[in-house]
Amino acid sequence: MSAEYPRRTVNGWGMLGFLLVATLGLAALLVYATVEAAKAPRELYASAVALLVAYVLGLGVVAILWAGFFTLQPNEGAVLLLFGAYRGTSRRDGLQWANPFYKKLKISLRARNLNGDKLKVNDQRGNPIEIAAVVVWRVQDTAQAFFDVDRYENYVSVQSESAVRHLASKYPYDSSADHELSLRGSMDEVSRDLQGELQERLSKAGVVVEEARLSHLAYAPEIAGAMLRRQQAEAVVAARTRIVEGAVGMVETALQQLEQHKTVELDDERKAAMVSNLLVVLCGEQAAQPVVNTGTLYT
Fold this sequence. Notes:
Blueprint: E1 10-11, H1 12-39, H2 45-66, E2 69-72, E3 76-82, E4 85-90, E5 94-97, E6 102-108, E7 112-115, E8 119-122, E9 128-139, H3 142-147, H4 152-170, H5 187-202, E10 207-219, H6 221-261, H7 268-283
Antiparallel strand pairs: 1-5, 2-5, 3-4, 3-6, 7-9, 8-9, 9-10
Helix pairs in contact: 1-2, 4-5, 6-7
């Protein structure tokens, strides 16, 4: 695997001043050589020609040096290549100067968002679901991003989709037992698992995953209606169970307090009738209608 290492560059402003002075010096040399060639006798033409040759060579060198300038914004890097060979990465922002023969490949080091498309996959139980994720990532190693994978941005996109598909197959959409992890009920645990798997996959590309979370989760349209009815039935059963538990506790408390305060003496048959009436009142969906009983249980 490739590994990034820093390459020091020259401050661009200092080099700019040097090249401006050199360019002005060459212009002065051209004027001087032209004047000398015009007024010099024939035997001094050789020195004038030498000055002109020096001017042409100096102009070529300065022109090449001018090609060494480049600029970087904050959180931006430049991968430097010399005839195809990696020579380091510069991360200094501002105006910089480096070897003019370097090929400078700029790369963003900022955090980026990958908003994945909705995928239709099967969860752990085989139910078709729709799932999508948002991934926050950034380039950490520029050498790996450029040289170890082909088009690192496309690599991140493809591997993210593969990781989301694999994640969906590891968990059920909804839990059917206590302490069972699910896509809908364990978002934090699922997000950590997704981030860990993505980091393992994308480390080859020199990418660090800062956050990964599910952005969309739903049953597929063909089973959404059936699953909604099942969820509603489970909710009704859970609510009924809670109501019955609460009603039984209230009835027990009422009987205990009646016995402790000796408000009324109840035999087993009267207790059973009272329990039945209280449960009907407490567990019924509609308000109970009072009925005045003028008789007794024994007449």
